[in-house]
Amino acid sequence: MDDELKKMLKPFKKIAPSKLQVNRWQRAVDREVKSIGKGRETSTWYALAAGLLIGFLSATFYFKAVPLMNQPLEILQANATEEWILTKTE
Amino acid sequence: MDWNATVEELAPALFRYFSAAVPSHQADDLVQEVFLRLVRKFDRFDPAKGSLKMYAFGIAHFVRLEAFHQKSTASMTEEGGSNLPASMESDRRDEVMDLKRAIAKLPENERQVVLLQIDNDLSMDKIAEILQIPIGTVKSHLHRAKDRLKAILQKETKYG
Lengths: 90, 160
Description:
A: mainly alpha, B: 160 residues, mainly alpha, globular
């Protein structure tokens, strides 16, 4: 840095935070680190719950809907209601 | 990451940076804000791009600009010497207050370069990177700021 400017700005060198201020900032940082940690923990639980729900819905679809789709048409028609047959034959 | 050690290491430089720009009680809050943002944005810190101190000063620059936009330059200079550390001699306090008032009178682009030079740890290219301006512009801002500061201090204070 320019020597003249360095000399001009020298009085600021005398300014320093007190130990109390530094402690307060350390505590604030500590709280923030903990709250971020808790936030991440909560996100992990949400992700796990969402994964389980998706798994459950996929399994339901696979075991209930897929066999139904694979059934022969005759069986589906045999199970069909009268209203359904009427709509199809009109 | 040892945050206690980081706070202890960076606090003096950040406190000086803000003390030169805003009233001391506000400097205290702004230093804390920088540390909180540093924790929140720590995953974006890339040691390959620069030191943690440089990253912290990048955040400090934006925090100061936000504070600057919230308050007018005039109100930022309104401060009695009573907010400066009690251990400081009265002559030194006057010197600091005169200098703070002089820095507040600089145009914003010159002021930000001067403030980043207070601890003279940051090189010109680091300052250029923090402010996202060419290094030549940093040099010219510094040169003009020095002349302007000298003129203000000679006119209004005991300096020179």
